[in-house]
Amino acid sequence: MTWLAWTVLCAVAVAQPGWAEVQVGGEVGWQGQAVLGEVNPLTITVTNGKSSVLSATLRVEQRVGSGWRGAGMQRLRAPLLLAPGGRARFAFPWPVEAGSAPVTVVVEEDGTELARATLPLRLMVEKPIATVGSVVAYPAGGPMIALAPEDLPEDPFLLSPFSEVRLTRGAAVSAPAAEALAAWAAFGGGLVRDGETPTVIPSLSAADLADAVARHGPRPPPRGLLIGGTVLYLIALGFALPPLSRRGRPWGMAALISVVLAFSLFYPLFFGSPQAITMLLYSLSSRDVSRFSYDTLVIVPIREGIQEVSGWWVERVPPGTERSGMDIEWAWGPDGPRTIVAANPGQTMILWRYGRAWAAGGTRHVVGSVAVDAGFAPLLAAVGPVARAGDLVYTERIAERQGGAARYEYRLRWEPDG
């Protein structure tokens, strides 16, 4: 039902007589109520009324923003395979922002549109409380949404609209849904009442991420090399001009060319070529959460272009601010969903997701006794308020450079003592 298991969508059902077309429908938000500024479930239902197998593409589009503050598009493309008479229902994480237009859903086959639906947005500002199981009394303190235990998602992204999840007595929650609840609660999503509550780890702060960006920026040209190269260039130029003015042998010009070529070769060899984009990935895991990690990806573009990253990411938008990357698309590849964003120079983007927990390996540290590399500062600052002396922290750093892209990955796993 969730996008995590979706490589190729397939649903098999018994054909029903009288159907003759493909139908599509759905809603945005839990029970059709979307929370503003949060990642909401986008639920889509597709019915194949044809007598043949439906091999098509599911396409979703929505205009985000407004004319005065800038408008963009968020899109989704996924393969769809449905047997004759088949019916399938899917739920995707879908950010809902102010000024957004209704969501358009299209099923197309070989470029031909087979079905289309427009899903309206019914917005709510206050995050509701989810009550799972038999509702004896409505909870005080805000709106409520009643869910059956089987309605709980296996993807913590889809719990984002809730401020709190209350499990009533006797509510049998599946193991995958319980893991999603644990991840959502542990990484600051909300409260879980009458269930196991993990230690809450604060999110990575914007100030710490800004310091990390400054630390990983392109290195400035070394002054010594620049001054030395300039002096050699002027000396070579001085030797080259007199022979040229007398139409003599151009040994000076040859020396000038050699100096310039040597400088252009040695600079990128020892100090690196100017990079077009810098990406910082911070992955935070906890022993209390067995399946998921909390990942933050910072994209710092130096040049304009399109950036594609593996996984389903959404932009992190602090309260009271607006999205910086207006165009975003989620598409399926051979290895699952991929996120495609438009990178604009001077516009740092911060994306986040629930990734796969990092449960083994790395360098072992004991909190309070061993210093950790400064690159892990945003992660250490997040676990700092809850970590105690004697706790274990495992770290791993990966640095890659391909062409004009510099990528740094920092992983940290916190294991409380005892």
Automatic annotation (TrEMBL):
Stretches that traverse the bilayer: 225-244, 251-270
Signal peptide span: 1-20
Organism superkingdom: Bacteria
Keywords: Membrane, Signal, Transmembrane, Transmembrane helix
Record's protein name: Uncharacterized protein
Species per Swiss-Prot/TrEMBL record: Candidatus Bipolaricaulis anaerobius
